[in-house]
Write a structure and sequence with these properties.
Layout (H helix, E strand, L loop, with lengths): L2 H4 L1 H14 L2 H12 L3 E4 L4 E5 H6 L2 E4 L2 E4 L6 E8 L2 E7 L12 H32 L1 E2 L2 E2 L4 H21 L9 H21 L10 H14 L8
Parallel strand pairs: 1-3
Antiparallel strand pairs: 2-6, 3-4, 5-6, 7-8
Helix pairs in contact: 2-3, 2-5, 3-5, 5-6, 5-7, 5-8, 6-7, 7-8
Length: 230
């Protein structure tokens, strides 16, 4: 058993807690440093969503398991966003992962599971932000949180988060197949969208929790498992 696998539980907990309490950049940095130090983690299409220090310190690409030289001329920064906890960079490296997916299987499994834990932490932070905002916004004699439809949505999101965490708890890298991880990503995305809608127009401002939810959704898209050709 390798050091990476022995330390996985602590790493996943760190990523989840950092996402929930510090923001996406510290959580992404912890995941990249713990699994792929010195590498730029990219999904199958060659896209990356990483903390700014990870981008600055990378000396090679990690393309869904395969290592390739980092070519600054081909790598394009699509956006650099200031989010709670630090800056996050969205990149297109101009490369795609090779069809041979045997290489780097262990790192791929740890990174893939870590991303779901990370996104769950971000979603839980979004839930806390929504709860606080809704509990302080008044409508007539009550708060928005006391409105029946709003209260029902918040309860549904909480139940969804608890179910997702129940599936993840105790799961080791490789226990959950890529299809299940994609399914969990989809559930997190759907719940995030419901929460952003609860924030109203404020949820779509660049300085709102909605921007973090958008970046979280991009994470799922960038690192989604490569689809088999029909």
């Amino acid at each position: 058993m390798t050091t990476l696998v022995r330390d996985t539980a602590a790493l996943l907990e760190r990523c989840h807690d950092a996402a929930r309490h510090e923001g996406p950049a510290p959580a992404l940095a912890a995941l990249a440093d713990g699994v792929l130090p010195g590498l730029l983690p990219c999904g199958p299409g060659g896209h990356a969503v990483v903390a700014a220090p990870t981008h600055a310190g990378a000396h090679a690409l990690w393309l869904d398991g395969a290592r390739r030289p980092l070519d600054p001329a081909r790598t394009k920064v699509r956006a650099e966003l200031g989010l709670p906890g630090g800056r996050v960079v969205l990149l297109d490296t101009g490369h795609a992962a090779p069809t041979d997916r045997d290489a780097g299987a262990e790192q791929r499994e740890v990174y893939g599971l870590g991303l779901v834990w990370l996104r769950l932490g971000l979603a839980q932070a979004l839930r806390a932000a929504c709860f606080t905002r809704l509990a302080h916004r008044r409508v007539g004699d009550s708060t928005l949180l006391q409105q029946q439809l709003v209260k029902g949505t918040v309860a549904d999101v909480l139940a969804e988060h608890l179910e997702i965490q129940a599936v993840l708890s105790g799961a080791h890298p490789g226990d959950l197949p890529p299809g299940m991880l994609d399914h969990l990503h989809g559930r997190i995305t759907a719940a995030d969208r419901e929460q952003v809608r609860l924030l109203g127009a404020a949820g779509y401002l660049t300085d709102s929790p909605g921007l973090t939810a958008y970046v979280s959704e991009l994470l799922a898209e960038a690192y989604a498992a490569a689809k088999e050709a029909p």
